[in-house]
Design a protein that fits this description.
By secondary structure, the protein is an all-alpha fold. It has one domain. Helix content is 79%, strand content 0%. Helix 3 runs antiparallel to helix 4.
Amino acid sequence: MLNTYEKQTFVRLSLSDGTPRKAFLTACVVGTVLLLINHGDVILSGELPSLIKIFLTYCVPFCVTTWGSVLGKRAAFSQS
């Protein structure tokens, strides 16, 4: 028999327990580090990298954090 958390959708789990805030903060830190690593030379030359590249640089850690959180919630509640 499925428990309450297993019945919930991905969206509901991804929006609960402060996950968006944690994912946002992680994306700010990790995204900035990745931006500097991957586009630092362009930025130092006085140019701006493509806006889609900047967006994706921040979007990836946000999505990874959210995905990991949902999987962690599912695993924790499936053991209970």
